[in-house]
UniProtKB/TrEMBL annotation:
InterPro entries documented for this protein: Anthrone_oxy
Protein name (database record): Membrane protein
Keyword set, alphabetical order: Membrane, Transmembrane, Transmembrane helix
Spans through the membrane: 27-47, 77-95, 107-125, 153-176
Native species: Actinocatenispora thailandica
Keyword Transmembrane: yes
Length: 180
């Protein structure tokens, strides 16, 4: 009695190498990136089109007090989870797509990460220092500070809003090409 073994499977030219399986799918991480970046982009957008224009119609004292309270209250675990989490999950999604051989999805995820970093950086180097200047002025002497920071604050916020929305669009494209 002879035992035959099946012939070896021939190598497929230009086939993507097999990758090991991960606990989460590439689509899951892309969707989580889309969610976190989208939440942060929404905050920036709301400031650009509603919060700052609304505060600009108030007295300087009210503007300063409200803006300072907003800046204090946004420093919370829920916002920080989205703000910092977007960096982490988008980086993980990018690496996953690359490891899985999804080059186009990886490229869009990497572009999304770079754009989010631009918005993140605008927050760190632009908006936060201006917020701190307003807080240091106090509400009684806020008028001159508000006049000095309003335009640059809106410019920095526009940068982070556009960068985050563009990041969101890139993540949507990454998810679309991932599924193909």
């Amino acid at each position: 009695m002879t035992i035959s073994t099946p012939p070896p499977t021939p190598a497929v030219p230009n086939a993507a190498p097999r990758t090991r399986r991960y606990a989460t799918s590439g689509a899951t991480m892309l969707m989580l990136s889309l969610l976190t970046v989208g939440l942060v982009a929404g905050v920036y957008f709301a400031f650009q089109v509603a919060v700052i224009p609304g505060l600009s119609r108030a007295s300087d004292r009210t503007y300063a007090e409200a803006m300072n309270r907003i800046n204090e209250s946004i420093e919370n675990p829920v916002f920080f989870a989205a703000f910092f989490g977007a960096l982490a999950v988008t980086a993980i999604a990018t690496v996953q797509q690359r490891r899985r051989g999804n080059r186009t999805a990886a490229l869009f995820a990497l572009l999304a990460l770079a754009l989010y970093v631009v918005g993140f950086g605008a927050t760190i180097v632009g908006d936060i220092p201006l917020n701190e200047q307003l807080a240091a002025a106090g509400t009684a002497h806020a008028g001159p500070v508000i006049d000095r920071i309003r335009t640059p604050w809106l410019a920095w916020n526009a940068i982070r809003t556009v960068a985050s929305v563009a990041s969101l669009l890139c993540l949507g494209r990454a998810l679309a090409v991932h599924r193909r």
